[in-house]
Amino acid sequence: MISIILVEPKKSGNLGAVARVMANFGFDNLVLVNPKCKKTAKEAIKRAKHGIDVLKKAKVVKKIPAMDTLIATTAMLGTDYNIPRSPISPEQLSKIILKKGKIGIVFGREGPGLTNEEVLACDFVCTIPSSKKYPTLNLSHSVAVVCYELSKSLSTKKVSEHIIFASKAEKDQLMKFLNQALKKMPFKNVQKRETQKKVWKRMIGKSFLTKREAYALMGFLKKLD
Length: 225
What we know:
This protein has 225 residues and is α/β, with parallel strands linked by helices. The protein is built from nine helices and seven strands, in the order E-H-E-H-H-E-E-E-H-E-H-E-H-H-H-H.
């Protein structure tokens, strides 16, 4: 199940437009994190058009909900050295998002977007390639691009039913073993160790580990003790 998660949206028109494009591409799970406008506002209803059902059933929560996989979206490009914001494109995302479980795609505030802390809470980052002169897209346009790529992929590819992917709890347990192993390894300073933690967290998020692979890695890490 794929959910579109909006963090603190403030324009009701954008809410309606997001609901509309979600309906256009066959997505209906909308989550609003601490919204600054009401989903029942006239402008939201007007802009939703035939996506009104998506808007009506949208869940309102206080914080980003726990999912098996969380993908942050950002216009701020990172590099290999800026680990929290090292991105993939929506097209790349659509090619790997074939797993089962709860998947949340997180869109930031109009203007400032997501904080580094919010990005770090996600498994990896997706960014939409755009002009360097004006890279920031309108919220609903960003959602439309991502939903288009996902629907295109999901309509042409079938997930193998026998593949069981690692759950969030299993990935968290794997990270626990990795952290224990890293504590025993010599590093020049604490920052180097923290960087390794971030790198491994991103790798685990991007790889879409199967349950079998996760347990194989945990078994290997146990033997290192």
